[in-house]
Design brief:
305 residues; alpha/beta; Rossmann fold; 8-stranded mixed beta sheet; 3-stranded mixed beta sheet; binds NADP nicotinamide-adenine-dinucleotide phosphate
């Protein structure tokens, strides 16, 4: 295990701030979360492959003994669990691996958080729903269609059972630029294709209410810092649009020809099943946490500004 936790936190010394372990820090949302956490927390970044930079540590969440060891070394006050097999189609092709990471991995983290009383925020997905309903509240019954959705639903249950005070957030689609390859950021791959003059197909059937990565990261960090907050929350825009409409609006904002946005009706063969309507209703987070929910257009604008 490579570990390099830097002078400020080395040898068991603690700085004034509470310590947060961001797991999956090199991923799309992880990059934003690390930035958002910096003012409030002493941030330690955990990733499957660690290059030894200060403030980082290697951690495979599917390996329970490594999880235990990392928590003994780091002693986090708060944990943001972003690490996952996030590629829905890959999860469908590799269900055992998906379960090992998304379900058992989350269980490993929840177990050690419960034992050490570290505060946990777990990131889940609208894919726990089948997408047959026009708008989902937190209390609605889940019915995941994909392996990915099933692993996340399993993890939600285990997190809630082990740590009643944990925060679980579901979102349907995160927009933003990771500005590096190998993450789950949809905008990077779409813009890369558009810049090369390649058209991109977007589903006309699947509707989603997105949220931008920077706002979501700030929200998660604020929620972790407030120990009064617990339970399940939906986040996303106030309106839901089809992926095709979203593609058209993104192209318009990016100054890309609308000809490079192509409608796609039926999903291509081999794609994991996805619900059509993943519109997460957000009254609860607005009511209990005073979170300002934006429109899809405002979300898009935030990604580019
Ligand atoms: N982005 C979205 O639209 C969206 C929507 C709904 C929910 N979510 C959820 O939000 C969270 C963050 O997603 P994201 O978009 O930031 O995904 P991402 O870019 O794929 O980041 C996930 C990170 O997890 C790491 N990881 C994978 N397996 C691991 C393991 N066994 N141990 C430790 N780290 C591991 C990945 O590292 P490697 O690159 O080394 O595999 C990657 O850095 C995930 O839980 C995802 O399910 C995302």
């Amino acid at each position: 295990m490579t570990e390099s936790i830097g002078n400020s936190v080395g040898s068991g010394s603690r700085v004034d701030k509470q310590r947060i372990l961001v797991i999956g820090a090199k991923g799309f949302l992880g990059t934003y979360a690390v930035q958002a956490a910096g003012d409030t927390f002493d941030v330690i970044r955990a990733d499957r492959k660690c290059t030894g930079e200060p403030g980082s540590i290697e951690l495979d969440i599917a390996d329970a003994s490594t999880v235990e060891r990392v928590f003994r070394v780091i002693e986090p006050d708060c944990v943001l669990l972003l690490a996952a097999m996030s590629d829905i189609d890959r999860c469908e092709r590799m269900p055992e691996q998906a379960f090992a990471v998304n379900a058992r991995g989350a269980e490993n983290i929840a177990n050690v958080c419960a034992r050490t009383r570290a505060r946990l925020l777990f990131t889940s997905t609208a894919a726990v729903f089948d997408g047959c309903k026009d708008g989902y509240r937190e209390e609605d019954a889940i019915a995941p269609l994909s392996v990915y959705g099933k692993t996340k639903a399993w993890a939600e249950d285990v997190v809630k059972a082990l740590i009643p005070s944990a925060v679980v957030i579901r979102f349907a689609l995160v927009l933003g630029f990771a500005r590096k390859s190998g993450t789950n950021a949809m905008l990077d791959s779409v813009m890369g294709k558009w810049k090369a003059g390649e058209p991109v197909s977007f589903s006309t059937r699947e509707t989603r209410n997105p949220i931008d990565a920077a706002s979501l990261a700030r929200l998660m960090i604020t929620m972790l810092g407030d120990r009064q907050v617990s339970g399940l929350f939906h986040v996303g825009a106030s309106d839901s649009v089809s992926r095709y409409e979203l593609g058209r609006r993104l192209a318009a904002r990016a100054g890309v020809s609308i000809d490079l946005v192509q409608p796609q009706g039926d999903p291509p063969p081999g794609r994991a099943p996805r619900g059509d309507n993943h519109f997460l209703l957000t009254e609860k987070i607005q009511r209990t946490f005073n979170f300002k929910v934006e429109t899809c257009d405002q979300v898009i604008e935030r990604c580019f500004s």
